[in-house]
Q: What sequence folds into this?
């Protein structure tokens, strides 16, 4: 009995830090009815110094169009290794994109910023359409986009 | 001696019978063309031969060229070719892109095509707390 309790305590102690290092987050992006084709969206994060930290999602599969996501492309050079396993279809006008993922706890309240670049065929490219600091207080607060995104929210 | 002669005559007769039949008999078409026509053509020309049927490098030579040469590019090196390059050039001039997002022209194995979500783990960029791929819903 004693050994069972010891084992349980040990596994709990080993598991809890892992759980505490990640938190489930939902990113919701509502597009405007801009009347055009599907939008390419690059969701990525910069660190407190403004340097590229990594990508969270790419909506749009064709790499030849990534150059229109100008800020993301400038940071990454269009390196598709940055978005392997986190790429999906482009998002139609008026649609809502909801992404559920586990984010590292260290990203919050530490000066990191989430960005979204957007691009639509026959329309002006829209880099940094969304720029929102990742903070605990900012969760659930809608942020308005400039061109194609009606609003963006992250919930924890 | 008589027995030997009889066997010799019989074997000769058999050989002549089958040999003549095989020599004059073929009338089945070759690739849809009667062999008679092929033979006649071969006799009437100096250079054409049946080799041309499978020799598609000799374009424009020989009357049997069309049998084996369909002008297809058989080198199989165009699987990754972009079939809308002209459109792409136009798009580049207009600084736009098309929305053909159906992936049917993707070249599998291309290093320029990112792996779709769910096929590989998210990148190890330190942003993801676990290896669980993001779940996406579009409404």
A:
């Amino acid at each position: 009995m004693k050994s069972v309790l010891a084992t349980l305590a040990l596994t709990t102690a080993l598991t809890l830090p892992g759980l505490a290092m990640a938190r489930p987050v939902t990113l919701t992006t509502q597009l405007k009815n801009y009347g055009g084709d599907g939008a390419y969206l690059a969701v990525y994060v910069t660190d407190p110094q403004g340097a590229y930290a990594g990508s969270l999602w790419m909506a749009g599969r064709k790499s030849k169009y990534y150059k229109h996501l100008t800020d993301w492309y400038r940071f990454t050079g269009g390196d598709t290794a940055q978005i392997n396993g986190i790429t999906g279809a482009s998002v139609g006008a008026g649609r809502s994109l909801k992404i559920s993922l586990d984010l590292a706890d260290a990203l919050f309240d530490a000066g990191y910023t989430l960005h979204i670049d957007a691009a639509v065929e026959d329309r002006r490219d829209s880099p940094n359409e969304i720029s929102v600091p990742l903070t605990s207080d900012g969760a659930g607060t809608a942020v308005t986009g400039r061109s194609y995104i009606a609003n963006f929210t992250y919930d924890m | 001696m008589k027995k030997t002669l009889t066997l010799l005559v019989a074997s000769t007769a058999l050989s002549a019978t089958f040999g003549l039949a095989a020599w004059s008999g073929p009338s089945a078409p070759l690739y849809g063309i009667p062999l008679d026509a092929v033979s006649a053509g071969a006799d009437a020309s100096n250079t054409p031969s049946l080799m041309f049927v499978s020799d598609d490098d000799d374009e424009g030579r020989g009357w049997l060229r069309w049998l084996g040469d369909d002008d297809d590019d058989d080198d199989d090196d165009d699987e990754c070719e972009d079939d809308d390059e002209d459109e792409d050039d136009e798009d580049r001039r207009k600084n736009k892109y098309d929305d053909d997002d159906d992936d049917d022209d993707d070249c599998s194995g291309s290093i320029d095509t990112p792996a779709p979500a769910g096929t590989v783990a998210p990148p190890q960029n330190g942003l993801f707390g676990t290896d669980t791929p993001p779940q996406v819903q579009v409404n």
Notes: Chain B touches chain A through 38 residues (CB under 8 Å). The beta strands of chain B are 29-30, 33-34, 135-138.
